[in-house]
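Hi R.,

Here's the chain you asked about this morning:
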Amino acid sequence: MKKILQGDALAELKKLPSDSVDCCITSPPYYQLRDYGVAGQIGLEATVGEYIEKLVEVFREVRRVLKPDGTLWVNIADSYAGSGKGSHEKQETRERHKQNTSKGWYVNGVPPTTAENVKPKDMIGVPWLLALALRADGWYLRQDIIWEKPNCMPESVRDRCTKAHEYVFLLSKSRRYYFDGEAIKEPCVGFDKSQPRGSKGSSRENAGRRKGNRKTFRGGGAYTRGQSFNNDAPTSAESHGNAPNETGLRRKRSVWHVSTTGSKETHYATFPTKLVEPCILAGSRSGGVVLDPFAGSGTVGVVAKSLGRGYALIELKSEYAEICRKRLNEEDGQK
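And the predicted structure, written out as tokens:
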């Protein structure tokens, strides 16, 4: 499957057959962050409840399209309730108040109602409101991954720290699902494969030896039978006769250090390819199909294609759908 569909996410999803894609990787429009100037867009709802309800409806249709062992990876950031201070910029019937990078919107000069007990300047908690709503709708909520941005945008606020992370939630359609942890293993800190374990020399000289022990961090290896160090202890897969782990690699951790990237195209929220790659590698088999119902500039499709997967991209804004086609055509030209 290689499709680029231009239109409303929910309407276009209903055209796709059930159980037809391996995984969905997407970043929906953030709440009250940006006006894309398209009728029917998600993100400018007057209340966070309406926003969450619309996303739950879209992802319910995603669940139908996913194969029984499929997964959903959702990148989402938080928003703040407007403070009521600062400059305003008129835009048709809407006035925008730029609080910071997680800015609030004012509809007809009135701050949007967000949720019960949310006060001006409060962090709303949008990521977890969405994650818990999806769980209540039938998804299995498997993990919260922290996307840490080494090159985060500076903020002008002085009464809190600069925001340098977003969430990526891993959800599954069924209790048992496809997840290739071997494909996304990462280098193990403190290992040097050039030095064999057990060689002579001081601990500083012998970089190949594992530094520390199970008592040097809270919890140790007691609950993982030593597997958290990825040393000679077998994994559950190895105990069934598979090949042992490669020395110096460990299972990927839940904090991903990925820099944001710019784009030469006129799109404000480009997905970093390094954020998409592990999701595709872990969540789909070679030759499988990856879905993005909020395609934006089409990065999910570009990465899926480069990794030998098919893709189904849905984008509401016609200009962005054209960017998707252009980028995927360029990917074809490079091969």
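The first helix runs from residue 9 to 13.

Let me know if you need anything else.
M.
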